[in-house]
Amino acid sequence: MKKAVALGIVIVLGAVLLLGCVPKEIRTSNIELGTWKKPRPNPNIERVKENLTLAQKNYPDDPLVYHLWGRVYALEDNYVEMVKAFEKSDELGDKFSAANDTIRMMEWDPLRKGGLEKYQAQDYSGTLEDMENAIICWPHEYDPYMFAADAAYRLGENDKAYNLSKQAYAMVPDSMQAAQQYAEMSLNVGKFDEALAVLEKLAEKDPTNAVYLISISEIYLEKSDTLKAIEYAEAALAIDKDFAEGWLNISKLYFMLKDYCKSAEAYDHYIVLIDEPNADDHFLYLLALYQCEDNDKAKTELEKFTMEHPENCDAWQLMANTYLRLKMQKEAIEATKKFEDCPK
């Protein structure tokens, strides 16, 4: 019995001695905050800050000081300073590293969940804010980067979207989803070589994906390699003959090569696959018909087009020229007058 009592006294005295070794400023801050597993409710943050400021001045190499600073900043939702403090604590020793990482992840989790909820509610500004804060707290998970990139893109912040998607892809280069997003965001900011490299890898993994091939085609078009662009567009259409965008792209490509009959033929495939054509795209088709000297079809299509788009002055001029080819003098004069009266 005496031995047990003596042992208890030794343990108590040891604890007292250990507490005595902790400087007062640090000890009072620790008590005020509680442990990180059982934090004290409603701590006096200003008093803790005063003590920690003094402790940092007197004990600049104590990792506990910066661990406690990190906890204070976490309570204030000041994530940038929280991370700085925890990193400084880790730099000075690994005693609190596990706790520091756990707290960072505890802050990360609700931010990520909140960002997902806001994304589902189409609150993209809120999504971006929460996901960027989640990334600050714990930058080692890729999906916050992807959601933040998508939100930034929807908000018109293309440079930010590109940078976020690039970081996500760097973390998980084997993820098809991350690669697709990175390629798309690269295209949006004109990083064609980066997009091309990723899309070529995607096409190797999934050679039956027509979307990848048509995207590669569009990149080669941007790089002024029209023949290569046609090669990939035709490969896309060989996979999916109902791929409307592929037919439109190849129509434009043949037009650039002045192969107007093939251009018009490709557009004929395109037009049956969509609900409503874009007026500019359709006018290019009318030019292709005219240059192909398919005069009867050009006449029919131009008459429909000018009825739907009477404000298109170029269409009236093209119609007048088409009528002249068909020796329809009266109609040519009327179309010419429409062209002259058309507000330029």
Integer average pLDDT? 92
Beta-sheet strand percentage?
under 5%
Distance between the termini: 108 Å
**What proportion of the residues is helical, as a percent range?**
over 70%
**Cα-based radius of gyration, to the nearest Å:** 34 Å
Uncertain residue ranges: 1-20
Q: Helices and strands, in N-to-C order?
A: HHHHHHHHHHHHHHHHHHH
Question: How is this structure best described in words?
Answer:
The chain has 19 helices and no strands. With about 350 residues, the protein is mainly α. It has a domain of about 50 residues. Helix 2 packs parallel to helix 4, helix 4 runs parallel beside helix 6 and helix 15 crosses helix 16. The longest helix has 24 residues. The N terminus is likely disordered.
Describe the protein's topology.
Elements: H1 2-21, H2 24-33, H3 45-58, H4 63-75, H5 79-92, H6 97-120, H7 124-137, H8 143-154, H9 158-171, H10 176-188, H11 192-205, H12 210-222, H13 226-239, H14 244-256, H15 260-271, H16 279-291, H17 295-308, H18 313-325, H19 329-341
Brief write-up:
With 344 residues, the protein is mainly α. It contains 19 helices and no strands. The protein is elongated and about 105 Å long.
Features:
mainly alpha, 344 residues, 0% strand
